[in-house]
Task: structure prediction
Amino acid sequence: MSIEFNYFAIGSMSIEKKKLLSSVYLPFIMLFIMWVVKMVEIAFDIQLSWLGVHPKHLDGIPGILLSPFLHGDIQHLMANSVSFLVLAVALFYFYREISLRVLLGIWLLAGMFIWFSGQESSHHIGASSLIYGLASFLFVSGAIRRDTRLAALAMVVAFLYGSIVWGVFPDFFPKKNISWEGHLGGLISGIILAFYYKSSGPKRKKYSWEYEEEEHMKEDENAYWKIKNQDATS
Result:
């Protein structure tokens, strides 16, 4: 009996380990590219910020895809690295079925928001828009689904990253050159996608007593006192 239990436990751990590792794969590759780009800039003493989103200019459209890989300096990249990796891995682990669609949706929606509403004189760069989008998606999606695991994840996200909401208000950081449009675009994108995919992705686990309640409800529907008497016809 104990051997069978241990075998089942080891098998479950192995599945969870594989799930976690697969969830890290794409976020880690993206983060690795961010660091490679920054190392190339430092090694060759160049700046690639001109490849970022240039609002309302045709030359800034490629930046919608490229901007998350570009950062102003090492401090900027370091500030984004851990947050992006943690939130992206959480997305791919808990929302495996829709994770890629959500990430791409945030990426494109936030980028387009910056292009349409950002300051024309600036090139917007950084993964902050993705971070804001991931945080808002994980929080709102966990809040509106009837799933205790996702609700708990939402609370963790709120605890760890709730303060980033102030980043959408430029008046709070008058001396810092931050892309508040990117922050706001990411925040809005995450909320939109949380509602759009409300019925997709992970399903709440049902317990045995819930199935029993459903069976009782079906039986009650067919109870004799709920069946209308019909007149006999000859």
Q: What stands out?
A: The CA atoms of residues 213 and 219 lie 10 Å apart. DSSP finds eight helices and no strands in the chain.
